[in-house]
Every structure is written in structure tokens, then in C-alpha cells.
Amino acid sequence: MEKGRAMKPRIVLCATALCLLFAGCGNSGGNPGEDGEATGVPVEIVTLRSQTAELRLERVGVLRGSAEVDVVPKVAGRIQGVRAVRGQRVERGEVLAVIEQADYLDGLRQAEAGMAVAEANRKQAELNVERQRSLFEEGIASDAVFEAAESAYQVASAGVRQAKAAVKMAERQVGDTRIISPLDGFVAERMVEVGTFVSPPVAAYNVVALDPMEIRVMVTDRDIAQVHRGAKVDISVAAFPGRCFAGRVTEVPMAADRTCGSFAVTVAVPNPDGNLRDGMTVTAAIRIGQRESAIVVPEDVLIERGGQWYAYVVNDTTAESRRVTLGDPVAGGVIVEEGLRDGEKLVVKGQAYLDNGTPVRIGEVGP
Question: Is the bond preceding 201 in cis, omega lying within 30 degrees of 0?
């Protein structure tokens, strides 16, 4: 609960229920009635203790993958087989789809044949150089003839290098007929079917990373100075009630969004088991500091009346209404700035039935 923010009013029981509850309670709280049993409204209490409170800045955001990639085929051709569908989890290097390979295999065989011819030509040129060198040393061959043989050998050697490059390119093209996922994640979109003709630069798939996930929450200029890179963030998700996911602030922008005037803070959330999904709405509680000697109460023990907040404490066997001034939301509830003191007995159950001076029967439920 933010300071000054209105809370949803608690539901108060109807007059009939209250009459039934208080029937026969004419005696003072804790005193036996005619039947010998204690009277008064049954309540449960905790003893308030000042504590070090973790200050939090709560914002609502939407989970998104930390990376999103359009997977573009590297070669053109028709899709021969589809191996990944929309929503499927995939790993980096996993084959998403396969393009027909026949033409590219033919190209590889031609390149390999060209490589064989080039190597044969180089071998022949090498033998000719050796023969012309011998003749030149014997004074039979001229300089021009020997130099021509060496030049032919250099040309043949370059032809081999060129043929090797052609083979590598053909091999790469054959490999590129497999459309590969570049990251671990899930298939967000599939734009191809068997028989679809594909070519760069048109994407065939869209893959989104799942681990970690990211949340972008908007923080006002009043609060941004309290948010720091590396700050811990407690993440709650409606789909997993009672479970808290741990995150950290990874980016704090230096400039506000010009459309809304707030700062888009990025929070990373590890997701090794893949439970978190892209598009889930979450509440992110950014830890922004600590407050020493704070009185913290759960939000559900407070009662709203006429725009003011109240809590009940117990003095002996009667309830006392206290108007409270609320501070920052923290883990476990909200700080009470004024109205409650260390050591007092706070009513945590049964407060909806109370008024100032109502007799009570006490059950201690906390330290």
C-alpha cells in the first residue's frame, strides 16, 4: 500500500449478524454470564514489536522474454519439413524446419568435382615445374620457359584454393537448409508450412528467450532516485499464489519516457523451470531501503471509515479504537507512522465486530 493511497474498504457484517453475535453479552468482557461462560467478542491479537522493515516500491508489469529473435533462413527454397510449432520450447541449435536440399547437394557435388580437377591441374603443373627446373639447370630450357612453368603452377595452386572455397560454400549451403534456433526459448510465431517458399531476408520463425524473463515497470520521477541497478525485487504472480519469485533491477534509465514522463525500469527474473510465461501480469516489489524501529501491521487488520484508517488494540478486556497514519508499504504489510506503539496488543481477528469499548475475549496468536 502506498502512502496516501486509498485501500479497499473492509466488509462489515450486517446488523442482524452483529445482534446475533452480541446477544447475551450484557456483562463486562471476560466476566462470566449466567451460564458461567466468559462473554465478549472473541478476538485474536498479536503483541506489536518495532522492527527493521524492508521498504518496497510496488509496481505492476508484464513479463516478457529477455530476447526476441526473428529467425531468417540463410538460403532460398521450399520447406521440406516443419519440426517446431508455435508455443513449443526449443533449445539453441535445435532444427526448426528443413529446406529441400536436392539443388544444394548437386551444387556440393559439382564443387567437389571442381576441386578434384583443380588438384589434378596443380599436380600436373608441379611436375612440369620440376621437369623444367632440371632442364634449366642443365642449360637446355630457357629462363622464359622455366618462368612460364612456375607461373602455371601458381595459377593451378590458386585454382585449388578457389575450388576449396567453393566446396566450403556448398557445404555451408547444404547445412543452411536447416533453419536453426539461435537461443533457448519458445516459438512465439511460425510463418511457414511444408511447401512454403522461403528466402532471406523474410523471417520463418520468431523465437523468444524464457530464461531469464524481463519486466519493465514505470517509476515516477519522485521515486526513481530510490531505485538502483542490482536492487532485489520480489515478484508475485497471480498464477502462483503464495509463491515469490526473485528478480533484480538490471537497467535504470537516465531519461524518462517522453510519452508518459515516467522511467521504464527493467527487472530480470530467472526462470530455469519455465513456469513463468511471456505476457503474464505480475507485481514487482523493488526493495529500496530499510526503516529502523518501525511498527508494521498487516493491511487486512485495518478498517477504513470515512476516509480514515483505524486499528483496534486491547486494554485489559476491552477494545480501543485507534486512528492510524499509514506510511510506506513493506514486506508483511504497511508501516504505521502514528496511532500504535511498541508492546500494544493489536487485534488481528475479530476487529470487524468491534467498536470502541467493546468487551472482548482474547486469544494470543503471535509473539
Answer: yes
The verdict on 139 and 221 lying in the same domain is: no
7 has pLDDT over 60: no
Q: Same structural domain for residues 201 and 75?
A: yes
Q: Are residues 119 and 165 located together in one domain of the fold?
A: yes
> Which amino acid, residue 247?
G
Predicted local confidence at residue 14, as pLDDT: 31
Mean pLDDT of 280-305: 89
Whether the per-residue pLDDT at 187 is higher than 90: the answer is yes
Between the alpha carbon of residue 266 and those of residues 62, 213, 219, 233, 253, the distances in Å are: 11, 10, 10, 11, 9
The average pLDDT across 25-48 equals 63
What is the reported pLDDT for 203? 96
Say if residue 76 is in the same domain as residue 202: yes
C-alpha cell at 322: 485507534
Residue given cell 515469490 in the structure block: 244
Single-letter amino acid, residue 13 = L
CA 149 to the chain's CA centroid? 67
Q: CB-based contacts of 302: which residues, under 8 Å, 6+ apart? A: 7, 10, 309, 310, 311, 324, 326, 334
Tell me, what's the pLDDT at 363?
A: 66
Q: What is the pLDDT of residues 157-166, one digit of tens each?
A: 999 999 999 9
Query: Residue 365 burial by CB count (10 A; 0-12/13-18/19+): exposed, middle or buried?
Result: exposed
| Interval 103-126: pLDDT, tens | 999 999 999 999 999 999 999 999
- Shared domain for 130 and 185, answered yes or no, is yes
Of 37-46, 143-152, 224-233, the range with the lowest mean pLDDT is 37-46
Q: How far apart are CA 183 and CA 91, in angstroms?
A: 6
Question: Residue 164 and residue 168: Cα distance in Å, rounded?
Answer: 6
